[in-house]
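Tokens help. Consider this.
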Amino acid sequence: MANAVEIRWHGRGGQGAKTASLLLADVAFNTGKFVQGFPEYGPERMGAPITAYNRISDERIRVHSNIYEPDYVVVVDETLLDSVDVTKGLKKEGAIVINTAQPKEEIIKKLKGYEGKVFTIDARKVSIEALGKYFPNSPMLASIVKVTGIMDEDTFLNEMEGSFKHKFASKPEVIEGNMKALRLALQEVK
């Protein structure tokens, strides 16, 4: 499984980290990849920290455990940087993507000495501009696709549009808003 990409998501219940990880698994599967997408959380309520995971590979995945040394980390809620070691186990050659409006230099100070690549996106701004509400999962999903390069951006957008059309067939405004959020996020992540 040497070619597998492993991703760990950090968020809070209700922010869509679990949904984003499952959507990423669906989209990657539809492009011919072997995938895993699963959450880890206890009986906590909305707002409690949760972790979700993805494994994406060109080969069959035979590992069935949490991911302890991810290639990439996605932080959906930057307040977790104060209470969770989000870089724990993150490979040196990996990268972290953080939802924040703060300058990257300020965020890096909170990463407990992590010296790898750091990407940021203001998912709040993107989702409010695209959807009129704060739903960070679509912008964060597009951001990790951009950072990892695990699939062609056009393929990703086409697959996501198909998924949204299936789930929100009677709500074209939801489809349009989410597609706008994905496109904006692909441009905004830095």
In short: The chain has one domain: 5-188.
